[in-house]
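Schema walk-through. Below, the input block comes first and the output block second. Nothing else is stored per chain. Lengths vary across the set, and this one has 194 residues.
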Amino acid sequence: MDNFNFYMNYFSSDMAIIFTVIWGGISAALITTKGYWLENFMFVTNRLSNHLSNITFLVSISIIGGITALLTKYVNVSIHYILGRDPLIRMSNLGGHEILTGIIATVLYILFACAIGYLYGIILKMNRLIAILIPVLLIGFGIVGNNDGELYGAVFSYFFQENSIILFMIKVIGAIGILFSFAILLSNKKEELR
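--- output ---
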């Protein structure tokens, strides 16, 4: 009998999305450093407008990063097709609604990471010891006092396993608003952030 080889390749943008989420969190923490903070005060007049301009910047990079990270799947498929290594039978079966939903979810995940990073950067400016204490407490609480990860599992399922895009948007936008509001309140309580 003739030999028949069948190769099936799945192309995904998961790794690009993960690295973009990490990049968003790190970028948000970096814009709270002293150099950026002092540089912003040349252009904005008070602390609230500084926060609002930083949040606007983070929303902008989240939108751009979310769209480009999600569409890297199609770049990978196109490069694979152009190089002609294996024939492609079907590129994608996603409709416009699914792609739009994916873009919205990706943008919100990146913005959520930005909000966490921004709050972490503000807390870090208040006390450098917290930079070590928060990760140690999170890891230690996950290992010791969490009953096999039930709390982290509940948080994960609350944010990452929602089936309705509307409920997901409400949950994540609410959490983002709380994180940014908490960062603004914390920085306003401090006389001068170093």
